[in-house]
Design goal:
- By secondary structure, the chain is an alpha/beta fold.
- α1 (about 15-30) runs parallel beside α2 (about 65-75), α1 (about 15-30) runs parallel beside α7 and α5 packs parallel to α6.
- It has helices at about 15-30, 65-75, 125-135, 140-145, 160-170, 190-195, 295-315, and strands at about 5-15, 35, 80, 85-90, 95-100, 105-115, 115-120, 135-140, 150-155, 175-180, 200-205, 205-215, 220-225, 230-235, 240, 245-250, 280.
- It contains seven helices and 17 strands.
- α1 (about 15-30) links the parallel β1 and β2 (about 35).
- The model has no long low-confidence stretch (mean pLDDT about 95).
- The longest helix is centred in the last third of the chain and has 23 residues, at about 295-315.
Length: about 325
């Protein structure tokens, strides 16, 4: 099957702000980038209705619309954008091998990993329903908290980022009810203390979410179960924030690329370089701190520039 092997100068895996920005820079540097969009073209932003904090959009923009614009911009400079996703890689030799949909074999001089991370959800049918309607379920308080000013919201989670997001929401929402599923926080003591001493945050320990309630379009309340007393309560809320972590989409790289204990790719500080020469990372596959479209786009630029320098050094 050797005739099915395609040689590529720069392969970009993934199509969020990081992947598309990498494509724009790589295409303008005559690297003839090929971008595979992956299982969720546009990435996490396609689940976001309104993006108001990305510079250059004074009136805001929807996540899907912004991704189409980024895609068009990458295409304009000659990026070859394709459907399909990477299913296997072999980074053991000088040639970086990547398989698409288990069938197409690519031999790449450089690879930019922009596979992102997926927010973890509880998996309740009602939660998924209101996530799809854009009516009040979110996995990013920093992205969406603004829309709930002076309203009451519920957040579920027990780690540092859940505490951070609860505290962030408390500054603009009337009331924040925090549901902690176990009997103790997973967060550091300092973060736990911060939410405990914030007046408009009510913490319900050992409490499970039962259902997100609404009128079919927007969220109006959250039904929760106090596991100690078995009492079911209904908490009025217009927003339901899920802060139970993210899973980086990096499983296929784990035999070759250094990952942290959660699965995020470890890059050289201040660069997009991974432990494999010629393989670079951008966006949320490596970033568990900021997780914003603008920071993802910035690292996409870095990855393309690093790939360009790598190729230039190889040619000399």
């Amino acid at each position: 099957m050797l005739d099915t092997i395609e040689k590529i100068k720069c392969l970009i895996i993934g199509s969020g702000p990081a992947g598309y920005t990498a494509a724009i820079y790589a295409a303008r540097a005559n690297m003839n980038p090929v971008l595979y969009q992956g299982t969720q073209p546009g990435g996490q932003l396609t689940t976001t209705n309104e993006v108001e904090n990305f510079p250059g959009y004074p009136a805001g923009v929807t996540g899907p619309e912004m991704m189409i614009q980024l895609q068009d911009q990458a295409k304009r400079f000659g990026t070859d954008i394709r459907d399909g996703w990477a299913t296997k890689v072999d980074f053991s030799g000088d040639i970086h091998k990547v398989w698409i949909n288990d069938t197409i074999e690519l031999h790449c001089e450089t690879v930019i990993i922009s596979t992102g991370a997926s927010a973890k959800y509880l998996g309740l049918p009602s939660e998924q329903h209101y996530l799809k309607t854009g009516g009040g379920v979110s996995a990013c308080a920093i992205c969406d908290g603004f829309f709930y000013r002076n309203q009451e919201v519920v957040i579920v989670g027990a780690g540092d980022s859940a505490c951070e997001e609860a505290h962030y929401l408390s500054k603009m929402c009337k009331k924040v009810t925090m549901l902690v599923r176990s009997e103790q926080f997973r967060a550091s003591k300092i973060m736990e203390a911060r939410v405990r001493k914030t007046e408009n945050i009510e913490i319900l320990m050992h409490t499970d979410t039962v259902e997100v309630i609404g009128d079919g379009q927007v969220v109006t309340a959250v039904k929760a179960l106090d596991k100690s007393t078995q009492e079911v309560i209904e908490i009025p809320a217009t927003g339901f924030f899920v802060a139970i972590g993210h899973k980086p989409n990096t499983d296929i790289f784990k035999d070759f690329i250094t990952l942290d204990e959660v699965g995020y790719i470890i890059n050289e500080p201040g660069s997009s370089k991974t432990n494999v020469p010629g393989v670079f990372v951008s966006g949320d596959a490596a970033d568990h701190v900021y997780r914003q479209a603008i920071t993802a786009a910035g690292t996409g630029c870095m990855a393309a520039l690093d790939a360009e320098r790598y190729l230039a050094a190889k040619d000399h």
